[in-house]
């Protein structure tokens, strides 16, 4: 049994979506085999016993505080997530003799540069700093093969762990849809990389082609642009929007859908990060349509058996065509596709299976 210190200045007190939810699920798996301490800005109630407040000082004072934490709790491993917190664990490795691990979800400097949040000089500074620091890590977990390949040759022995899903939390799709209803579902935020405008445009095309669809959106964050686009496409009155609900409630609400869509385009965010939302969609047993981008493309042989994959070219039309195909599909065939998907998710994407791989690296 190891003594793991999670180290990252991140708010984890209300993990509804994305990375915070992902991190908290990983904590639960660590606790099955190891002693865990969480040094973060905040934590959910279930991790209060493991919580250590992240030091609010900088420079030498911060390093001294972290060194004191490592000594006080007899830490053997320091674990962080993303590229933003790489430096402090490296210093602790050489000051305290701990082993260090990081989980990478994407390429942060590519994303920032593409969004024009940093210039070219800052881009290259961040890139080479990350490359230098990663060489010093004992264990690196990555979310996709192409993310691992991005850092060859040093990444040959990095560990692949994709997203997870809690099958006990997922509300399975009902055995049969309500007659006459065809409901397109989406669950997530409305940030540009998610591609939600593509889905709305596809719904407008499909409706113009005679498909009597409605939309069921479970959204978080700012949704003003989504409402405006729905109104522009004359879809607002045909859309039910649930906003900022809990993760468990999101599963319950999305279960009323006939099809779920992941409409992402290829960009610096989606190119390397495994879409955990796809695992959640498949786990519901609702037929799923997804664009064939990034890590989805590298697993296309598996995903094409349990979902409809469309090319990330002329995405609205490709999605509309897939919607039409599902709408015309025999209900029994549609249910079978969802059943295969749910079973695939159960075997491939549970947090338990992911936890076994990660826990083995800390023994």
Amount of beta strand? 15-25%
Mean pLDDT: 93
The total count of strands amounts to 15
Q: Can you count the helices?
A: 15
Reading the helices and strands in chain order gives: EEHEEEHEHEHHEHEEHEHEHEHEHHEHHH
Oligomeric organization of the protein chains: single chain
Radius of gyration from CA coordinates: 22 Å
Helix/strand-derived class?
alpha/beta
**Fraction in helix:** 40-55%
- The rough form would be described as elongated
Q: Extract low-pLDDT stretches.
A: none
Strand sequence of the main sheet, in spatial order?
Answer: 5-3-1-6-7-8-9
Major beta-sheet overview: 7 strands, parallel
Notes on the protein architecture:
The chain has about 375 residues and is an alpha/beta fold. About 45% of the residues lie in helices and about 20% in strands. It has 15 helices and 15 strands. It has helices at about 20-35, 60-70, 85-95, 110-115, 120-135, 145-150, 195-210, 225-230, 245-255, 275-285, 295-300, 300-305, 315-330, 330-350, 350-360, and strands at about 5, 10, 35-40, 40-45, 50-55, 75-80, 100-105, 140, 160, 185-190, 215-220, 240-245, 260, 290, 310. It has a 7-stranded parallel sheet with strand order 5-3-1-6-7-8-9, with helices on both faces. A 6-stranded parallel sheet has the order 12-11-10-13-14-15, sandwiched between helices. The protein has a two-stranded parallel sheet with strand order 2-4. The protein is elongated and about 65 Å long. The termini are close together. The mean pLDDT is about 95.
């Amino acid at each position: 049994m190891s003594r793991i210190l999670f180290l990252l200045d991140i708010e984890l007190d209300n993990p509804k979506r994305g990375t915070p939810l992902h991190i908290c699920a990983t904590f639960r798996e660590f606790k099955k085999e190891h002693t865990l301490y969480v040094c973060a800005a905040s934590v959910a109630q279930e991790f209060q016993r493991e919580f250590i407040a992240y030091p609010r000082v900088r420079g030498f004072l911060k390093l001294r505080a972290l060194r004191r934490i490592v000594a006080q709790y007899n830490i053997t491993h320091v674990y962080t997530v993303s590229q933003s917190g790489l430096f402090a664990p490296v210093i602790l490795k050489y000051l305290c003799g701990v082993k260090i691990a990081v989980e990478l979800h994407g390429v942060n400097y590519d994303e920032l540069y593409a969004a024009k949040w940093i210039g070219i000089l800052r881009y290259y500074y961040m890139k080479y700093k990350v490359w230098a620091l990663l060489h010093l890590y004992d264990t690196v977990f990555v979310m996709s093969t192409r993310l691992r390949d991005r850092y060859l040759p040093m990444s040959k022995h990095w560990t692949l762990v994709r997203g997870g899903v809690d099958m006990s939390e997922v509300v399975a799709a009902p055995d049969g849809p309500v007659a006459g209803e065809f409901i397109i579902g989406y669950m997530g935020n409305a940030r540009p990389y998610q591609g939600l405008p593509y889905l709305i445009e596809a719904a407008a095309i499909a409706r113009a082609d005679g498909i009597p669809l409605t939309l069921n959106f479970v959204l978080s964050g700012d949704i003003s642009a989504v409402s405006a686009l729905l109104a522009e496409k004359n879809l607002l009155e045909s859309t039910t929007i649930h906003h900022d609900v809990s993760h468990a409630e999101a599963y319950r609400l999305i279960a009323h859908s006939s099809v779920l869509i992941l409409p992402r385009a290829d960009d610096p965010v989606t190119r390397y990060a495994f879409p955990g939302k796809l695992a959640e969609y498949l786990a519901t047993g609702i037929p799923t349509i997804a664009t064939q981008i990034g890590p989805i493309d590298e697993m296309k042989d598996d995903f094409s058996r349990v979902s409809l994959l469309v090319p990330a070219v002329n995405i609205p039309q490709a999605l509309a065509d897939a919607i039409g195909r599902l709408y015309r599909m025999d209900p029994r065939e549609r249910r079978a596709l969802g059943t295969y998907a749910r079973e695939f998710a159960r075997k491939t994407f549970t947090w338990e299976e992911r936890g076994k791989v990660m826990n083995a690296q800390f023994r």
